[in-house]
Specification:
The chain is mainly alpha-helical. Helices cover about 45% and strands about 5% of the residues. It has a single domain, classed as Nicotinate-nucleotide-dimethylbenzimidazole phosphoribosyltransferase (CobT), large domain (Rossmann fold), CATH 3.40.50.10210. The longest helix has 20 residues. Catalyzes the synthesis of alpha-ribazole-5'-phosphate from nicotinate mononucleotide (NAMN) and 5,6-dimethylbenzimidazole (DMB). It catalyses: 5,6-dimethylbenzimidazole + nicotinate beta-D-ribonucleotide = alpha-ribazole 5'-phosphate + nicotinate + H(+).
């Protein structure tokens, strides 16, 4: 079956005059392409289900691209959203806030883990500063010559969420719009797979707070070790999450407000990017706890967006697992990562490539002249290729 041409990337641009978190309706995956992929899986030279999650991924990719079999990825983009957080002043991190700006420069120079892993899978890295606490320019914008990171800066550092709102209403709207604009820019330039990442000292504290509020959990259930904090800092972090939750609890019915009050510019930009990518029919691999916290909010803001995402990695941060469970997503990789940046998501790229290639390139039983699964009493015994199939 030949499915209709891909709808991936169909333009539904951001209205610069729009306010708040309003986004167009999220389109569904293409059911015809998924049905065709599901049928093709039964015809390939293997027992049914023998390729496990690769089969599920191939069907998902067919639905996302609206074609069966799906095409190889042509342009994979890792987008690292950077921002500082005032709550770092509460002693919740093992590193000083200066590290955020230093790491943004490291990303731009191609020397961070995300750059190395991106090179392994043929992805390009773009870094965007939405709220880094520095006055100095952080150029260039990426190893591919993209715009300077600070081009989309909303403010210098988000507010200290245990004491005040992370952002004003106008700043929150601007940050969400920035994320949507970044998605549009990447997709308009040909991106067919997006890998959002992040960088920001103290950012696991707002991420955990968001997950706790949106999933009705207690601070002790979501707090993790972040940058490798000791017990004393862990207690400070737990207290900061508790205090931030008190401030954010009246707003749990409005995910955009939760992001504004206890999140930050980076989390709002990530949510905007995730929502707009789904609107634009472009698949996304989710990374660690910060991206997943933003994804949890983005799904509330743009219902149905999560069908366009796959979970790349399981983080050691407890809040990430809670968020993924709420989204109904199971990670592809569980390697004990807690770095962020998009690193875990990039490790999942080969899984998606394998899923695409096996569906597209494997021979069918008819093409290979191989006998299919034996029927009971059909006389093929145990010698056929499908013997022992689940």
């Amino acid at each position: 079956m030949r499915c209709r041409p891909s709808g991936s990337g169909s333009k539904d641009p951001v209205d610069p005059d729009a306010s708040g978190s309003a986004v167009p309706a999220v389109p569904p995956l293409d059911s015809d392409a998924m049905a065709a992929a599901r049928q093709r899986q039964t015809e390939l030279t293997k027992p049914p289900g023998a390729l496990g999650r690769l089969e599920d991924l191939s069907i998902w990719l067919a639905g996302a691209q609206a074609t069966c079999p799906p095409r190889p990825f042509a342009r994979i983009r890792a987008v690292v959203i950077a921002g500082d957080h005032g709550v770092a002043q509460a002693g919740v991190s093992a590193f000083p806030s200066d590290v955020t700006a230093q790491m943004v420069s490291n990303f731009a120079a191609g020397g961070a883990a995300v750059n190395v892993l991106a090179r392994q899978v043929g992805a390009a890295v773009r870094v965007v500063d939405v709220s880094v606490d520095t006055a100095r320019p952080l150029t260039p914008g990426g190893v591919d010559g993209s715009a300077a990171p600070e081009r989309y800066r909303v403010r210098r550092s988000s507010g200290r969420i245990d004491r005040t709102d992370a952002l004003s209403v106008a700043e929150a709207d601007a940050a969400f719009a920035v994320g949507r604009l970044i998605a549009d820019e990447e997709i308009d330039a040909g991106a067919d797979l997006l890998v959002p990442g992040e960088m920001g000292i103290g950012n696991t504290t707002p991420a955990a707070t968001i997950v706790a509020l949106l999933c009705d959990r207690e601070p002790i259930e979501v707090v993790g070790r972040g940058t490798g904090i000791d017990d004393q800092r862990w207690m400070l972090k737990t207290a900061a999450i508790r205090d931030a939750m008190r401030r954010g609890r009246p707003f749990t019915g409005d995910a955009h407000s939760v992001l504004r009050i206890v999140g930050g510019a980076d989390l709002l930009a990530l949510a905007g990017l995730l929502a707009q990518s789904a609107v634009r029919r472009t698949p996304v691999i989710l990374d660690g706890v910060i991206v997943c916290a933003a994804a949890l909010a983005a799904e509330r803001i743009a219902p149905g967006a999560s069908q366009w995402w796959v979970a790349g990695t399981r983080s050691t941060e407890p809040a990430q697992g809670i968020a993924l469970d709420a989204l109904g997503l199971t990670p592809l990789v569980d390697a004990g990562l807690r770095l962020g940046e998009g690193t875990g998501a990039l490790l999942a790229v080969p899984f998606l490539r394998a899923a695409q290639a096996t569906l597209a390139e494997m021979a069918t039983f008819d093409q290979a002249g191989v006998s299919g699964k034996a029927e009971v009493g059909g006389g093929q015994g145990d010698s056929g290729p499908a013997a022992g199939a689940p």
